[in-house]
Amino acid sequence: MSLAVLGFSGPQVNAQEIEFWSQDYGDLIAWQRTMEEFTNEFEAETGIKVNYEQVNWSVAFNRWLTAAQGGAAPDCADMFWLHSFSAIGGDQYGPMPITEYRDTWPTLEEDFYEGSLQDVNWSGDFYGIPWRGDVRPLIYRTDLAAEAGLEGPPETWDELVEYAKALTERDSNGNVTRWGLALGPDNPSQSYVPLYWQAGGDFMTEDGRTATIDNEATRVALSFIRDLVWEHEVLSPDFMERGYSAEGDFLAGQLGMIASTPGPIPPQLAEDYPEMDGKWALGVPAAGPEGRDAYAGSGYFGVLRGTDNVEACVDWISFLSRPENMQRLSEASGNVSPMREVMASDYWSDTEWKEVINETLEYAHTSQHPSPVWNALVSPEPGAVIYDMVYRAVIQQEDLDTVIAESQERMQAEMDRAFSD
User: Fold this and answer.
1) Residue 252 CB neighbour total at 10 angstroms
2) Rounded distance between C-alpha atoms, residue 401 and residue 271, angstroms
3) Predicted TM-score of the model (pTM)
């Protein structure tokens, strides 16, 4: 691939520097070393010096929120939640469109999974290149499934229920000793999200100003979860409590399946738990009435408003998005890549679970939403709109129409306040 195609015009006559931030990934020392290698190679090739700053994930959200509100920002960066931070910054701060440089990547749609491109396009503009993903497949205990006479993963919601029933075990007193299903291992609000999509729902309008959860999809998703707990008795009623540990139960053989499991868990099982070898497998999320949408987090390389070094940043992003460099980024970070060529490599196709992740990427649905308050709406804590809605509808079994109507009103009020200024 030529430098011209990648947007480079050759080494710069005048020395130039850009500031670039990235979150930390995987082994921190290895990640730091990889980024230093990239900056050195890029400077040798272009004459542009990249001043790299590593941002700890514990402060990343606040750093980007501050940048979107007019605070300190680099020239370009590894970012996330484009839609929300763009809504916060408007046309003054935060992520900067680079639509005029879109042709730097002439085969973008062919090179990247469609779902990942949702994370770099917003309101008709193009903002950068997706480089990492966290797509969430289903995971199940193959040893326990075999004991129950099950083969392969469940394909539909109905099969999910059948499998969960077969995997649930009780002692002689009727007490559950193994639950058949967990929705997810961490955030109960995030665990609800893919089921809502699979039922055909959208949380808000495309401009992020109008809540759209008072609909049939919400009723279907909440009813499905309620039935898993109280009718089928395959999902623990404690699944929304702070001390609940689906991952721990899965490892201990006290849980048969997790419907939506974060990307880091499969490689962690493969690398850190050799005793689990042959006892687990992944599956594409079970299809609901309207689809198989898989929850997908992501990150992208983009430019920040206020920089005077747009072209140098585009050159840097072009360099990082070369297939061979995307491969290095994926292996160094441990994240799946949204680039098809990387995911077709030996590294991402040498085991069955990696092949399933590749398949799941075809159903990836971006987890971000165009509202400045999206993070608060899906917080895993009591008081957050989505958490409270699920808790009231499922655990407390309140009237669905009342819960949904009140949740719609609360969500709209939160969104209105975000745009009140």
Assistant:
1) 10
2) 46
3) 0.88
